[in-house]
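Issue: ligand-bound run for adenosine-5'-diphosphate - logging full I/O for the record.

Environment: standard queue, default settings, no custom constraints.

Inputs:
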Amino acid sequence: MLRIGAIEAGGTKFVCGIGNDSGVIEDQISFPTERPEQTLEKVINYFTDKNVAAIGIGSFGPINVDPNSPTYGYVTTTPKPGWANYDFLGTLKQVFDVPFGWDTDVNAAAFGEAKWGAAQGLDSCVYYTIGTGIGVGVYMEGRLVHGLVHPEGGHVLVRRHKEDPFEGICTYHGDCFEGLAAGPAIEKRWHLKGNELPADHPAWDLEAYYIAQSISSTILMLSPKIVILGGGVMHQKQLFPMIRSYVQRNLNGYINTTALLEDINSYIVAPGLGNNAGLCGALALGVEALVRFNESRR
Ligand code: ADP
Ligand code: ZN
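Outputs:
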């Protein structure tokens, strides 16, 4: 059985694991994200002697995913100490002589969901993580989308609710989607952490209002076959029906398809891979890297 390495590189914590090409994780460890030297030393220690055939990395970002760029594999503009302009992929490539998969954490999760999760059998999906930040991964026509850089759907502009005076906390944009709706924005607006707010608190209606705006735009722009919502904030399961209902209201019947009009419960969904979406996504990138490598040698 193949052993593939997977790295879910988050801004708060790293998860490293070993899995196989069926999406089964056999072993994993997790540690807090520190400066890159300390963090990657732990990563290297974990994979040394594990005999992996490939490694997939889903990373926090922004990152460089353009294979033709001299800074491919770098983390680019993050405020995280030590990580800006850091050659993440290159550092690991110097140690492990195996094919590497490399993409954003959310593109990885979208890919994992398409291979083994809620979007299995579909050739498109959009994956949201709504946590410390908001990220959006895009898988379209059977491949991950990068475009100019890579999608940064957390920072789209949304229309502020007329009864929401909160100015938002995005350091770049103030009241962009992430600035209004990520976990830290909820905490700052309501003076309680998300998990401390009761399920019937008005915070959740407002949260659903913003999430639904972004999803409505995504549906109009990209027309994905399914929308998957993960991340800590989405542990609030009552958000799902509220979001679905706002999306239907926003679109107002314009997109005339049963997926949106009748089957929206199976169109806007939680990750099929649950809390493993990120790590399984990285695993999927590793599997893909190995397949490509083997094809290129034929
Ligand atoms: P990260 O984004 O750092 O990878 P998470 O996806 O767990 O990690 O997101 C963390 C954010 O989600 C925090 O802002 C936290 O307050 C919020 N959060 C975590 N659990 C819950 C919960 N059960 N309900 C609401 N918000 C939550
Ligand atoms: Zn922003």
